[in-house]
């Protein structure tokens, strides 16, 4: 069944996901192992390098 799109929603609100606060402006990083929530942008330039 297709959902009805009404264009409703909230912008700029804090969310709580599994007890973790995610505020507007937060950065979320995710992969198959988990999720990181950060208040600042992380430097990912070295990720995956060995």
Strand content: 25-35%
Number of helices: 0
Globally, the shape reads extended
Counting DSSP E segments of at least 2 residues, the number of strands comes to: 4
Widest sheet, order of strands? 1-2
Radius of gyration: 15 Å
The structure class reads mainly beta
Average pLDDT, rounded to a whole number, is 89
Q: How do the SSEs run, as a string of H and E?
A: EEEE
* Helicity level: under 10%
Major sheet details: 2 strands, antiparallel
For the terminal residues, how far apart are their CA atoms?
A: 47 Å
Uncertain spans? none
Structural notes for this entry:
- The mean pLDDT is 89.
- This protein has strands at 15-17, 20-22, 27-31, 34-38.
- With 50 residues, the chain is mostly beta strands.
- It has no helices and four strands.
- The protein has a domain at 12-40.
- The radius of gyration is 15 Å and the shape is extended.
- It has a two-stranded antiparallel ribbon. A two-stranded antiparallel ribbon has the order 3-4.
Quick description:
The chain has 50 residues and is mostly beta strands. It contains no helices and four strands.
Features:
50 residues; two-stranded antiparallel sheet; 0% helix
């Amino acid at each position: 069944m297709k959902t009805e799109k009404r264009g409703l929603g909230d912008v700029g609100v804090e969310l709580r996901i599994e007890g973790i606060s995610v505020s507007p402006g937060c950065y979320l990083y995710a992969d198959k192992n988990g999720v990181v929530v950060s208040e600042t942008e992380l430097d990912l330039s070295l990720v995956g390098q060995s």
